[in-house]
Amino acid sequence: MTKRTLLSTSIKTALISSIAVSSAASVSAYAAEETAKVERIEVTGSRIQRQDMETASPVTVIDAGSIKAEGYTSVDEILQAQPAMAGMAVGSTTNNGSDGMAQVDLRGMGAERTLVLINGRRMVNSGSGANSAVDLNTIPVAMIARVEILKDGASAVYGSDAIAGVVNIITKKDFEGFQFDINGGATDKGDGENLELSALYGFNTNTGNYTFGLAYSERRGVMQGDRDWVEKGSSSFIPEGTLGGKQLDQETGEWIDRTYGYDFTQDSWLQTPNKRYSFFFNGTEEISDNVSLTADLLYTKRKSKQMMAAQPANLDLAVCDANTVTNCITLTDEMIKGGIKADEDGLVNYRKRMNDVGNRIYEQDTDTVRASLGLNGYLDAGNGLDWDVSYTWGKNSADTWVHNSIHQGNMEKSIYANQDAWFGGQPMTQDMIDAVSYKETTTGGNEQHTVAGVISGEAFDLDAGAVAFAVGAEFRHESGFYNPDPVIVAGEGTAAQQDPTKGSYDVFSVYQEVSVPFTEKLTGEFALRYDDYSTFGSAATWKVGLTYEATSDLMLRTVAATGFRAPSVSELYGGNSGSYDYLTDPWGNELDDQILVNYVSDENLDAESSESYTAGLVYSPSFIDGFSITLDWWRFKIDNAISRLDVQAGLNNCFAGDTSACEQFNIGADGDLSDLSNPLTNVGYQDTSGIDFNLAYTFEALGIDWKINNDLTHLIKFEQDGNNYTGTIGGMFGGYAEYKNNFNITARSGAWSVMYSNRYIGEMNDINTNEAIDSILYHNISATYHFSDLITANVGVKNLTDEEPLMIPSENDAGTVPEVYDTIGRQIYAGLSFKF
């Protein structure tokens, strides 16, 4: 799968040789003189346990204190606020198509390309079923000690899905006592309330620690119609119904052109409501002086909802003629006079907003559990060896419903049986409602089993220090399923047809890492991994990193790595799935900008392959205490990418006369989009690069402790499948601002602290119209006061100046892109923490 080059072949040969050398060295070192055990830690991005955090890979750490001060109530909110995020990850403001999930999109390369770990081990994919990414709603903020974001390709260390990087969530452990927290907030307009209650209890024994936690959170909705900046919708689907594009004038009885468009914003949320119930546990037990048992458990129940306007029913009805006398409608003289007539196939289009049935209510009830059991220890052999074996199991199950759905077949039958009742413009009777409406019921789930083992230590000594290594193996089984309602599978609903999904795969992996101190200043880090999949075959990936301490103040670092992503269960076995995408029909045949696209999967998909490069420096001048800067250039290239092509570009190209585009997307003659399709393929690619800059400074002045931190990401380029998205925004792909920046300053003295922060999103151009979209700056302020060692309070305001989201012509909801901009407005929050 990976491309063979002279460089890669040489590196693989060197690493394979180092496996043999280090393995032999560790055995021969067994008889060496006994040395004292030195405690080492595992750093995100490496399996080698080390005494410090300095590695060649850039890592951002967000601790629990910062999370609380910023008023974050969900993991996706924490992550999506980081400048390194781009694209369009679904979250609390995604009302259409999210199924209540929340995801992370590092570098804008797709949620499926960012690996999520808990305590260094995989988290099960989760959501509504057969998912390809982790639902961050399953991880309560209350359990987080810190979040580590590895902004570097890490497939050689962690395997598939780590192409863009890794998010490693470290949970609270080794806690003693009892802590109760209550946090809540709302907008200054009196809606969007949120509440989080959590309790943490831990105790020590002579041989270990046991920490338990409970958390409950609730987020209430915000309606689009409750924000002045939301422009009214204008849909061609109106409650009175239209026939052949005409509506009935109740006063004159004539069929006339449609006089208005339906405002659907009154029935849609800007912020979707949900409730989450979580239990988590961390335990450590020392079995002997050199062997410990560790265990962690997480369970989360999520109950979430989304709401949209009543179902738009779109039917092509048969018109009675000499050949068709049943199951058809009769065009009256008034209809014919109004210009209503059958098309060449003897059909006429009927559209109706089904308000009499009720709004579409999407509801999810998901249960996610993850348990991990590990045995680790220390072997007093040679310079000492650390070992770890573990079993991690995760399971996610979901029941989802869509209330007030419409059965298209039954609706057609009802219309043919009583067209006067349907076309008369009067409210539907209860019998009519009962005949055509139903509740969609869907089930789905994901399951993961992982058995892993690793041994690490110091193989032998060089003049500059010890050569450290880690060797490990892993077996993982992934499975998923998704069963849509039988009406939807049969294509008999007014919602898009969708096939069921079911499948699984196994993967066996072996890997090794080596850290070599070439000199006292220069250290090399090498990793090699081999994965064998039951689906597409095998993949070999490698990583090479160098750190160079140029001076006591300056460290230079660079990493080159290859990566891969295996096709997910849904990508392999998903079948056909319909989606109403926001598109512009260049032929002008479609009346609305939501057009049905058939998404098609492929069992013969291959894995993606990638290359990543970073180069940077860490500078901490000795003449300025507490000051440091980091600067990193990065580039990611994905080949053979599993992707869906740009449908809008396909429409435009077909309209311009490109027949291959017409064939590729199943576009018919004269712009017929009735079978518009977008298949998954391996022909895609991504090429993105940029610069990350961080400045941190802690100092004392005026009797106050100050802390300044600034994170900047400059996106140089983001290209995908022949399209340049650099500096653009659109409803289908999200935002790729060239500049994003986070700044915060904290002042602390005694019992109090105050923090001001801002978040900047640079200007962009609309992806389709090229219209310039301004930059935006959000301001936040918070304060914390420690009344005593037992009681702490905090209060804050997010979006202090109540900045409204920017309007985007190629929007996906409410005239903007809610996944990029703050659509809720000014929010006020507060919290109390009690510790005993």
TrEMBL record:
PROSITE patterns: TONB_DEPENDENT_REC_2, TONB_DEPENDENT_REC_3. It is found in: Cell outer membrane. Its main location: membrane. One of its GO terms (cellular component) is cell outer membrane. It is a multi-pass membrane protein. A motif (TonB C-terminal box) lies at residues 819-836. InterPro entries: Beta-barrel_TonB (IPR000531), Beta-barrel_TonB_sf (IPR036942), Plug_dom (IPR012910), Plug_dom_sf (IPR037066), TonB-dep_rcpt-like (IPR039426), TonB_rcpt_CS (IPR010917). Pfam families: Plug, TonB_dep_Rec_b-barrel. The keyword Signal applies. Residues 1-31 form the signal peptide. Residues 371-800 form the TonB-dependent receptor-like beta-barrel domain. Keywords: Cell outer membrane, Membrane, Receptor, Signal, TonB box, Transmembrane, Transmembrane beta strand, Transport. Residues 53-166 form the TonB-dependent receptor plug domain. PANTHER family: PTHR47234, TONB-DEPENDENT RECEPTOR. Belongs to the TonB-dependent receptor family. This is TonB-dependent receptor. It comes from Shewanella gaetbuli. The lineage of its organism: Bacteria, Pseudomonadati, Pseudomonadota, Gammaproteobacteria, Alteromonadales.
